Amino acid sequence: MDWQTLATDLFPQGHAITEQDQFLSGSAQVDGATVAVIGTTGHAPIGIEIALAQAQAVLATVREHPGRPIVMLVDTQGQRLRHRDEMLGINSYMAHLGKCVDLARRRGHKIVALVYDQALSGGFITSGLMADTCHALPAATIRVMGLPAMARITKVPEEVLTELARSNPVFAPGPENYLRMGGIESIWDGSLAEQLAQALRAPAGADVRAELGRQRGGRKLAQPIIQAILGGHDVQAA
Amino acid sequence: MNNSSSYQEASARERLLQLVDAGSFEELIGPAQRVVSPHLGQLNAPVAFDDGVAIGRARLDGMPIFVAAQEGGFMGGAVGEVHGAKLTGLLRRALDERPQAVVLLIESGGVRLHEANAGLIAVAEVMRAVLDARAAGIPVIALVGGANGAFGGMGIVARCTNAVIMSEEARLSMSGPEVIETANGVEEFDSRDRALVWRTTGGKHRYLMGDCQAIVPDAIGAFRAAAIEAIARQSAPELTLQALEQEQAMLTDRIARYGALPDPADIWTEMGMPDAANIAMLDIAPFKAAAAGRRAGGQ
């Protein structure tokens, strides 16, 4: 999906978003208030420059517009796979972005992410997955890597993975699987503007993804384990 | 304690037990509880009774700490649903119990592909939990010295902590060389060129770049001493706007100064390191002496 169409649907009250080298930034109007918009487009590979540009935009929002909500628009093929990125410490750039989003949250910025096209692995973990809540469009693709590559690395035959992907949310790409596991808060269908406004109105809270995964049946053990550690008791199977 | 056993060659539990004060480790959700991965069985992959990570309370030089150690021998230390939940649970419990620090002995390839989607969310939860602990004023220290290094999501998690301690043999990065070679060819990154892999991801390079705060010889006692020192240095573990603006400036400056250079050795020369071609041969003490005043500061 191209970001201009998305922005028109999301922000009928108007926006001033610009694209530069697959990096999106600007502001928009939601519910009569201004929000900051930060994101990527064109299945951007997240290299050190675009990670740094996103971090800079988050820090600028915190500094210049205290409390302004941040909307993150996610479309990435994952981290850029280049020697130069590794040499310059891409994990530090990714961590920096994650830390900036986290700082914004702690200073009272509501952060809502939307996967509007692709989300993969390293590009996703420090953007959409660091938001207060992450949502997705029904046609979005969310995954760690494709099944053929996964088959090669895990040495599990691709047919077996394909079969498992039908019934098991762990292996299949797609927002509904991430929804069941609690990684995605909701899938937006219908009026995007209304759902964004609603997400921005919801109070920010602690990380409840493991509990959502338990309730929705996609990750049955994570929350019981966390609870057992917190309560000092044995793990109570879900 | 003067423990010169190799950190790299030890198992996760050996490292952990020798790192902390003798007899002080008290494990949570230990292997006797047999909380194993719910996903590996259907792939006919072996399970581990601790899912590849030991977590618990201990003392370090008398200080109450929480500690976790990832076992590289089980699926490369990769993070699955159970493994990740143990780390997240430990970090969240730290908010209640307020140990003096949480020490993470990281050895991991990142997300466990056998549990793909669940592993990805689990790593994101660990990241949030590390930053929650820091925000609550509890320092988190990462030790990286295992043969599998710290890659993928755990390479990111390491850089979310207050301090990273590495040995020179250790590796810290994002995508493994094999992954990059598979995606973009051997000319992009020759994963069999051991020296290049070491120059690009190894402890000395990371120390010079400011991606790790301490470098030690490959000995459990050296990691212990460095961890004690790192904890003592964290008077204000939480992230601030000022600290992140400094990090932004450091990372921006790094691209400006070194972004056009082809090889880590060129970066070391540009930094003014004497005899950059022979950095690999230097012992830790003379290396640190040469690096002083030249390496980039990290927060």
TrEMBL record, chain A:
InterPro entries: ClpP/crotonase-like_dom_sf, Malonate_gamma. It is an enzyme of class 4 (lyase). Pfam families: MdcE. It comes from the Bacteria. GO terms for biological process: carbohydrate metabolic process. GO terms for molecular function: lyase activity. Its EC number is 4.1.1.88. Keywords: Lyase. SUPFAM superfamilies: ClpP/crotonase. This is Biotin-independent malonate decarboxylase subunit gamma. It comes from Pseudoduganella aquatica. The gene is mdcE.
UniProtKB/TrEMBL annotation, chain B:
Keywords: Transferase. It comes from the Bacteria. The keyword Nucleus does not apply. One of its GO terms (biological process) is malonyl-CoA biosynthetic process. Gene3D superfamilies: 2-enoyl-CoA Hydratase, Chain A, domain 1. GO terms for cellular component: acetyl-CoA carboxylase complex. PROSITE patterns: COA_CT_NTER (PS50980). Residues 1-239 form the CoA carboxyltransferase N-terminal domain. GO terms for molecular function: acetyl-CoA carboxylase activity; carboxy-lyase activity; transferase activity. Pfam families: Carboxyl_trans. Coiled coil: none annotated. InterPro entries: AcCoA_carboxyl_beta, Acetyl_CoA_COase_Trfase_b_su, ClpP/crotonase-like_dom_sf, COA_CT_N, Malonate_beta. NCBIfam families: malonate_beta, PRK07189.1. This is Biotin-independent malonate decarboxylase subunit beta. It comes from Pseudoduganella aquatica.
